[in-house]
Amino acid sequence: MTHVKEQTGTSITLTGIAASGGIGGGRAWVLPTSSTTVKPEKISHDDAKKELAKLDAAVKHVISEFDHLKSISKDDEVNQILDTQIQVLYDPQLLEDIHIKISKQLFGAEYAIFESFNKYIELLDESGVDWAKERMIDIVSIRDQLIKTIKNNGEELLIAENSVIFAHDVSPTEIIQLSRQNISGLVMQKGGLTSHAVILAQSLNIPCVISADWTMHDPEDFTMVLMDGDSGEIILNPSNDEKSLFDKRKTEQEEIRAETMIWAAKPDQTNCGSSFTIQANIEFLNELPRLKTHGAKGVGLLRTETILFQSKNFDVDNQIEFYRSVMDAADNKTVTIRLFDAGGDKLLDDYEAEANPFLGWRGIRMLLDKPDLLDQQLEAILRVSGDYPGKLKILVPMVSRLEEIDEIKQAIHRVERLLEIKNITFDKSIPLGIMIEVPSIALMAEHAAEKVDFFSIGTNDLTQYTLAVDRGNEHISKLYEPLSPAVWKLIAMTKSGADKAGIPVAVCGEMASRPELAACFLGMGITELSMTTNSIPGVKAILCNSSKSELKNLAEIILSINETHLINLHLKEWMQSKG
Amino acid sequence: MLTKKVAILNESGLHARPSSELVKLASKFKSDFFIEMYGYRINGKSILGIMTLAAEHGAEMELIVEGPDEEDAMREISQLIENKFVTE
Asked: Touching check for B52 and chain A: CB below 8 Å?
């Protein structure tokens, strides 16, 4: 394709970090950087009244804008940010400061606003606290909006619809305003994946690429730019081929998204009416809205260690708050809370690096050595369970010996007795399950099943422990092969052990999120699967379009194959047969 | 005039959301409300004032309330802080 080369000569490709999915395309629009400077302009005593009136009008105008934004926003996160912005505009101390600068010190309204805000902005900047710096961007943007309103007599800058915005950094408020102007994408030079701006871009469905160094070009020089929020690519002045490639991607994404909506809402049932349950793996609070949109029936794996690392003092009350938010979002479906699955490195000050951290002091091994931490978590879970009886389950990570099950049960009894003394209600028959991720416990599944209420198979660790392959070691990463017949054998052994005791088995590892593997699990009779929310619709699309006997057949064939590459081949063929 | 010493109990400190809750509550009362911390006094109805305190978990501060409804104000404000800014 020689003609492509000729045309790419004129196009420029930049790469950033994909932050919010979707394709954006259109004219480029560069958001002016907030380097507003205002000169100290003196006014006469008689003009003070006029300047105060200007201030008043500008404040009212910006408040009405925020009120309008609030009225069209349905997102809690967005509304919370807007509420704080509105409070700033009503701030009695700030307004008094500005008034004094106008009526006593006789400065023009613009400078009075600029100086009064700057005092607080500097204090926030100097505070050295992360959240304060994030809020600073917002406060700078309110200051600039007020000044701009006075300068332009209240007229808002108009951005052509469907343009791609290029910015240095964007405040959450600016994102909300931009979204109202129907922008087609956002490219930021700065930004972090967990920044407020990115979370908002995601919840407002604005394709976004961050950490993209675009400033050596002037994007406005080009008639057309394209950006892909899933790959992080940005193309200035794209060739016709690049345009049609992005068009194709866009159509595909839209099709997938449309399909998502269809399957998310369908019942969890094969085409012959046999039921299964798909739940979500959840780690962060901002993932919770996707439970509903992506069709998850509750949470099959709630990871708690990330929350633990994010705060030094993760006490019972803070945990309760977190678990409650999850329970509320789960909408009366079950939630399986996995106890802290952490190693010593992230918890203890006196931690010494382990030679083999994956074979080391982690999961249940660490929890049993730290009864304070364990009891706090169990207390928080049990207290919440009182309000959601039958909806909460406890999952224990990294169990490798039967004795550990007895020990964790003792710990639960200890905490339960404590709560009984305090007269606190809790779910007395809260189900206790263990992760099957260490081969030694998979081999003992039959006996472990007699001691617990359910199993949850963690395929990632089970694979690396079974194959003796460290996933992170690049020399041997090719050997990390979850489809290995040895792994399948252990999964089958786990299932038959559970069947003997009559307890349910779930799969919550990455394997469950691949439709063809989910199909095998269902064929093996494992009807509970838990995966990242984004994978749910794709998995459901395959499962809902298959019959129980077809899946059973597939599982039987896979379990009978002795070589990984043949398993791969067969699964590939099966997927092709599904279209 | 009423004064009371309190400590910030919630893990993440007096960040944007708790500051916002505090201002929302304080503004309901007629009484003046000030917070003194590190010998620095701010208007407790000022969101910017409170945010610039950047009070972290464990920080101690003095609440000062003065006005016709000072008793109700002090009770509800200290309750909000003790409840770690969880409303309802």
From this structure: yes
pLDDT score, position A159: 62
Q: How far apart are CA A291 and CA A302, in angstroms?
A: 12
Provide the β-strand partners of residue A395.
A338, A433
**Hey, which residues of B are catalytic here?**
15
Residue A101 falls within a domain, yes or no? yes
B16 vs A135: CB contact, 8 Å cut-off? Answer: yes
Q: What is the 3-state secondary structure (H, E, C) of A265-283?
A: HCCCECCCCCECEEEEEEC
Token pair for A245: 């490639």
- The CATH number of residue A444's host domain is 3.20.20.60
Q: Does A26 share its domain with A91? A: yes
Do A263 and A408 lie in one domain? The reply is yes
pLDDT of A166 higher than 90: yes
Mutate to test the interface with A, among B17, B28, B32, B48 (most CBs of A within 10 A): B48
Domains, chain B: 2-82 (3.30.1340.10)
pLDDT at A7: 38
Cβ–Cβ pairs < 8 A, chains A and B: 66
Q: Contact A83/B13, CB-based, under 8 Å? A: no
Which amino acid, residue A473?
A: N
Determine whether the interchain pair B54/A132 forms a contact, defined as Cβ–Cβ distance below 8 Å: yes
Query: What domain range includes position A413?
Result: 259-546
Report which of A488, A489, A526 is spatially closest to residue A508, judged by C-alpha positions. A526
Same domain, A294 and A233: no
| pLDDT at A8 exceeding the cut of 80 | no
